[in-house]
Write a structure and sequence with these properties.
By secondary structure, the chain is an alpha/beta fold. It is 36% helix and 26% strand. The protein contains 11 helices and 14 strands. The strands form 3 sheets. It has a 6-stranded mixed beta sheet with strand order 6-7-8-3-9-10, with helices on both faces. The protein has a 4-stranded antiparallel beta sheet with strand order 2-1-4-5, with helices on one face. The protein has a 4-stranded antiparallel beta sheet with strand order 12-13-11-14. Helix 3 packs across helix 4.
Amino acid sequence: MNDPAIRTTGLRKRFGDHTVLDGLDLTTQRGTVHALLGQNGAGKTTTVKILSTLLRPDSGHVTVAGRDLAEDPAGVRAAIGVTGQFSAVDNLLTAEENLRLMADLRHLTRPEGRRLASELLERLDLTASARKPASTLSGGQRRRLDLAMTLVGAPEVIFLDEPTTGLDPSGRREVWRIVRELVAEGTTVLLTTQYLEEADQLAHRVALLHNGSLAAEGTPEELKRRVPGAHVRLRLPDRAALAAAARALGPTALLEEEAQAAQGETVLRVAGDGTPTSLRALLDRLDEHAVAVTELSVRTPDLDDVFLALTGNGKASTR
């Protein structure tokens, strides 16, 4: 199917006098990860609640997995899976029992439920924990069990609300691996996250919400290119080399000189986007003037910089 996995047009929602969503237009292609970023109150959670049929919009049109939200909410629910910020597992049940319970709620037959539970336990590396109460599982294991429960029924679209909150770096990367595998198989993921690195790592597209509207959207790289500030940082061995580099590159290329007290070295910041072509040209020019470079590093804007530049506010949050 060529139609988008998610499409909202003119989506609006108010709570009393407060407008939470103000004409949101959003399109998520199938088999991709679409990240929602924004400050508290930007409308991310409200958007997810509407898309997952937990909240009615005031106006606008929504389709999810090819189903019209207003005309076929049951069809939408059958096509989606939701993993919230907080674990939804039953602590008194084992990992396997949690999955079988979810299979029952999805109206699968008992043999189908048992087979699917076994497959998901193996897929998410939970076989050794299958008969352990959920209360005894580690944070990473519980998160993987959450994802396994979401996968019961093979949803076409999955909503992940801060899926790695509270996990250590190892657990976070394990969740990333699972998400990448799901998307490679054709599943669509709408992700909210408080870790901008996570959006950078996983998202094919990022939607930046601000005051209930779409402030910017694009791939992480496209958004970063909209923000100035990319530069190359050169460490030179001495002030003579610094002066030679400044003459070679010209004043228009230089952003800043910083004296380095340690070992009398100096640092030069040069405007540049850090692409292989531009770096090669930079080094070739320095070589022509016999300038030795001790160290080179590239600084490009990250999603934090994008958020600050496009909203004029603090760091992104997903609340």
